[in-house]
Specification:
Blueprint (H helix, E strand, L loop, with lengths): L1 H11 L3 H11 L1 H18 L1 H29 L4 H4 L3 E4 L15 E4 L15 H22 L1 H14 L5 H33 L1 H6 L10
Antiparallel strand pairs: 1-2
């Protein structure tokens, strides 16, 4: 079942538009300038909720990254492109990363050179990071934040489409990332309630919780 789903997504359900879209979604370098702008605007204009959300997100990402690195080394699961000849999509190199979306990507089959490229397959770093982001945004911004799950789902799909992960990697990473993010956020909430109540009682009255503040 795992291989059957993989080959449907990677080899059969493909077209030129998806090739470019999936490759672009998985390339963080394209999105870095936009992310920096969003972060800066949130810090300047977002108020208490946005700043706490970003700080919580940073803590969650740092911890999740360590868990991901540990599990990759322990599980050491091979990627599809490391064990079989699978369809790969490569963006064209450009001077500015985002300009690559205006060029037709290269399509090829993985070969012996791909056997030693990239790290282990599980957990997926892309899926971990974006699931952490989606979980945090949902808890802090409820319905508005939940829209990010669309991005998370698309990126998870792209990792299979590009031959980087098995479907089971993506599914298992999703549950792992949601679980660890919720645990970290619950811990941060407890720390906030204990520390802020004692150190900043007046401020705590205005912000008794990190996630559902009526005011900024």
């Amino acid at each position: 079942m795992n291989q059957a789903i993989f080959y449907c997504i990677n080899a059969r359900w493909t077209n030129p538009v998806l090739d470019l879209l999936m490759a672009a979604l998985s390339n963080i370098e394209i999105w870095k300038p936009f992310l920096v702008v969003i972060i800066l605007l949130s810090l300047i204009f977002g108020g208490f909720k946005a700043r706490v959300c970003l700080l919580s997100l940073l803590v969650c990402l740092l911890i999740a990254e360590q868990v991901t690195m540990f599990l990759k080394a322990e599980v050491n699961r091979r990627r599809p492109k490391q064990v079989e000849n699978v369809r790969l999509v490569q963006l064209q190199p450009t001077h500015l990363e985002f300009l690559t979306v205006f060029h037709k990507p290269t399509i090829r089959l993985s070969d012996e050179n791909d056997r030693t490229r990239s790290g282990p397959s599980f957990p997926s770093g892309h899926m971990t990071d974006n699931t952490v982001i989606a979980t945090c945004l949902t808890l802090f911004y409820r319905r508005r934040g939940a829209f990010y799950w669309i991005v998370t789902g698309a990126i998870g799909y792209s990792r299979i489409y590009l031959g980087a992960h098995w479907p089971s990697d993506i599914a298992a990473t999703f549950f792992l990332a949601v679980g660890e993010t919720l645990l970290i956020l619950v811990f941060l909430e407890l720390v906030w309630r204990l520390a802020a109540r004692k150190l900043k009682p007046e401020f705590f009255k205005r912000h008794p919780t990190l996630f559902a503040n009526p005011t900024r």
